[in-house]
Write a structure and sequence with these properties.
By secondary structure, this protein is mostly beta strands. It is about 10% helix and about 35% strand. It has helices at about 1-15, 20-30, 160-165, 175-180, 230-245, 480-485, 530-535, and strands spanning about 40-50, 60-70, 75-80, 90, 95-105, 110-115, 135-140, 145-155, 170-175, 190-195, 250-255, 260-265, 270-275, 280-285, 290-295, 300-310, 310-315, 320-325, 335-340, 370-375, 405-410, 410-415, 420, 435, 440-450, 460-465, 470-475, 500-505, 505-515, 520-525, 535-544. The strands form seven sheets. A six-stranded mixed sheet has the order 11-10-13-18-15-16, with no helix packed on it. A five-stranded mixed sheet has the order 3-4-9-8-6.
């Protein structure tokens, strides 16, 4: 299959070379090493301001991506009607895509394809951020396994504000291996993007440091580098603290709207869940206590279904569930909930929300309902889930060049800036520890021990590595944090390929990473976006 396809691409390339179109193709793709063929899919994404009705009354001013299909299958671009999110992009593994980002925002932006294995200049590093009015042409071949990936802005210091304003969408990859499984598809394949927002009295998003003249629009104050920017000054100390600790909203949104009961047919369903929140971590469970059946995570399908009483989902993580509504009574209801858990060592008391500029609200680790389903009254058509999904080779740390001595990376906090091992983000810099060799594997350990943190306080971090999918080798927690850890530890899904991993207070998580195909400068960072924007992000350099 693959060979046929490559041959076809080659033949197309030869045909093109003999036509005048080749001139365009060569000029247009000079920046990448991809073969100069027409892409299978060509889209435009316009990042722009808009308005959507989210709550009764005044519509909410948002920023969003408007998609336009220029070439390829019409089903590749799915708008989410009435939502600021999206569009949902559907591709097949092996397809060549071209996506033009057009920046119609009043500030710089760039798109990162979260979880995708692409060259460094296609990855949306903040060094490639484009000015208002400018365009960035992405061209890459989709090499990832079938799974639920996503995209969002990544300009340094403004990622949190831009995502909060609405910019994010899902990027769903399919392949033959997945298709052969006959998993629920069409209306039985449901994507749920879970986020939280605060609204003001006029239904506008409230973001710390936002411009009070137009609360829906993020202000120009920056969090990274210029902590004392205009927005921060206006918001004062409380706002600055909130920004550094992370932004939580009282209102849970699913697919960009207030969660409404969703009618489903009496058949098996596949649920693709993305935690698209800026900072909030989820502890997902069924309201009736039945176990979740997990079939996929960040990097696609697991080797087989995994039952869990609950699943932890940190910002940017994805999980795919299989649920058979065909075995439930017509007219009955069941809800996905987020259960209570202990979010941080000393978050509750000393670092109360008052000090963080917010009163009351829904703290991290509080319980709430996410999405309610009502089973319709059609005929029951229960299904069977295959016990073998997509094979995953066992992770072998002995293949790593530093198997005996893992590299240790610790989130740290200095003078009101986050960092990793004491160093904040540096646009083009990577230390020796952060330099790796193309074609090798390494073991990295993320260690969250609150060292150098504000008043010794540890909080959870959602560590993400760009450009690859890694494996989780092991987890360990310090005795001091064992009690809080026990409220989350049965909910990790570490079996499959991952690009983001929750590291709880007092925890050490070991990963196996393979640096293949692409040399260059890539990011790794905390995906709690306010941590990232205020310095908890660094580069790693892959040397050829
Ligand atoms: Cu989804 Cu660097 O991020
Ligand atoms: Cu963090």
């Amino acid at each position: 299959m693959d060979i046929d396809r490559r041959e076809l691409l080659l033949r197309t390339a030869c045909a093109l070379a003999a036509t005048p179109g080749a001139v365009w193709a060569q000029a247009g793709t000079a920046r990448t090493a991809e073969p100069p063929t027409q892409p299978d899919l060509h889209l435009e994404l316009h990042a722009e301001a808009g308005e959507v009705p989210i709550r009764p009354g005044t519509p909410t001013r948002v920023w969003r991506y408007r998609g336009r299909l220029l070439r390829g299958d019409a089903g590749a671009l799915e708008t989410m009607p009435g939502s600021y999110l999206g569009p949902l992009i559907r591709v097949r593994r092996g397809q060549r895509v071209r996506i033009d980002l057009i920046n119609a925002l009043p500030e710089s932006t760039i798109i990162h394809w979260h979880g995708l294995h692409v060259p460094d200049d296609m990855d949306g590093h903040p060094r490639f951020a484009i000015a208002p009015g400018a365009r960035y042409a992405y061209e890459f071949t989709v090499r990832n396994r079938a799974g639920s990936y996503w995209f969002h802005p990544h300009p340094h210091g403004r990622t949190g504000a831009q995502v909060y304003a609405g910019l994010a969408g899902l990027f769903v990859v399919g392949d033959d291996e997945e298709a052969a499984l006959g998993l629920p598809a069409g209306a039985q394949d449901i994507a749920l993007v879970i986020q939280d927002r605060d609204f003001d009295g006029d239904n506008q998003f409230v973001y710390p440091g936002g411009d009070s003249g137009s609360p829906g629009m993020p202000g120009r104050g920056t969090m990274g580098g210029g902590m004392m920017g205009r927005g921060m000054m206006r918001g004062g100390m409380g706002s600055m603290m909130a920004a550094m600790m992370g932004v939580l909203g009282d209102q849970i949104l699913v697919n960009g709207g207030a969660p409404a009961v969703r009618e489903v047919s009496r058949r098996p369903h596949r649920l693709r869940l993305l935690n698209g929140a800026n900072t909030r971590t989820l502890k997902l469970a069924w309201s009736d206590g039945s176990p979740l059946t997990v079939i996929g995570s960040d990097g696609g399908l697991l080797s087989g279904p995994v039952p869990r009483d609950y699943v932890m989902l940190a910002p940017a993580e994805r999980v795919e569930l299989w649920v058979d509504f065909g075995r439930r009574d017509a007219g009955s209801e069941v809800a996905l909930r987020s259960l209570a858990f202990e979010a941080g060592a000393d978050m509750g008391g000393m670092m109360g929300r008052g000090m963080m500029g917010r009163q009351g609200g829904l703290p991290d680790g509080a319980a709430f309902e996410v999405q309610r389903f009502r089973i319709d009254s059609g005929p029951a058509q229960p299904g069977v889930l295959p016990q073998a999904l997509a094979p995953i080779t066992p992770a072998d740390p002995r293949e790593a060049v530093n198997a005996a001595q893992p590299k240790v990376f610790q989130p740290t906090m200095g003078m009101m800036v986050w960092g990793i091992n004491g160093e904040s983000f540096d646009m083009l810099g990577a230390s020796e520890l952060e330099t790796v060799k193309l074609g090798t594997q390494e073991v990295w350990e993320f260690r969250n021990e609150g060292r150098g943190s504000m008043m010794g306080m540890a909080m959870p971090h959602s560590m993400h590595v760009h450009g690859l999918q890694f494996r989780v080798l092991s987890r360990a927690v310090s005795r001091r944090h064992a009690d809080g850890y026990a409220t989350v530890s049965a909910g990790f899904v570490d079996d499959g390929w991952k690009d983001t991993v929750l590291v709880m207070p007092g925890e050490r998580v070991r990963l196996l990473l393979r640096f293949e195909d692409y040399a260059g400068l890539f990011l790794y960072h905390c995906h709690m976006l306010e941590h990232e924007d205020s310095g908890l992000m660094r580069n790693y350099l892959v040397k050829a």
